[in-house]
Amino acid sequence: MEIKNNIGFVTLLLTIIAGYCDTVTFVAADSIFSAHVTGNFIVFAYQFVKGSDMNAWIKLLTFPVFILAVIVGGRIAGKVLNHYTILFWEGLLLLLGGSIVAGLTYYGIFDKFMMYSVVMMTVFAMGLQNAFGKLYAKETYGPTTMMTGNVTQASLDFGTLLKTRFNNAEALTSLKKQLFLILGFLVGCFLGAFAGKQLGLWTLIFPGLTMMVCYFYHRKI
Question: Which ranges of the chain have pLDDT less than 50?
């Protein structure tokens, strides 16, 4: 089984999904980051010192869940020929998580325990995506779940272009790739913020469906 390789499309898709998931869980699920899990340390420390949230400790659980997901992603990669299988499982988790929220909300039995459970599923999904990016770095223009490194590289490239009066082809190409990543993530953040505020956590269905449809569309048997 082979995958049609389209680096630009895959990069845009993954950055939008990561930005979306990270923001929708933050907005709709007790200010928890699902992609930038280290950001939860800051939120936890703030809430702990402020004493405003007895459930703040749950944010620390995102870290071991993320680590476990990366380990699982590595195991998956070692057992399958199609490395996009990792993204299939990511999409399935997001679709399942959103469906659970929608179903339980419909029957009026969606509570905080289930909310945190779905958030951890989302964190796991983002961990799989992060593992994909590390294992198959050539499939995207750069990291798709965490933008700090991309912003740093973009700044270095821009500095080089200023120094050379925009006469450095390598730096210009690199800058375009970094901007592609950063802007894709930003678009995902806006979409996630709107969906999380207006509709809620069940909208994880959308990135889940998108990921799975895309997986099947891009494979050849």
Answer: 1-4, 221
Distance CA 113, CA 132 (A): 29
Would you say 98 and 105 are in contact if contact means Cβ atoms under 8 Å apart?
Answer: no
Rounded distance between C-alpha atoms, residue 221 and residue 219, angstroms: 7
62: Cα within 13 Å, side-chain hemisphere = 32
In the numeric block, which tokens belong to residue 70? 């990366």
Closest-CA residue to 94 (of 10, 204, 20, 220): 204
Q: Is residue 122 a contact partner of residue 21, using CB atoms and an 8 Å limit?
A: yes
The 8-class DSSP code of residue 38 comes to: T
Sign of CA dihedral 207, 213, 217, 220: positive
Question: CA 138, 149, 46: angle at the middle one, nearest 5?
Answer: 135
The answer to whether 34 touches 118, Cβ cutoff 8 Å, is: no
Cβ-contact 32, 62 below 8 angstroms: yes
CA distance 208 to 87: 10
Q: Is the pTM of this model over 0.85?
A: yes
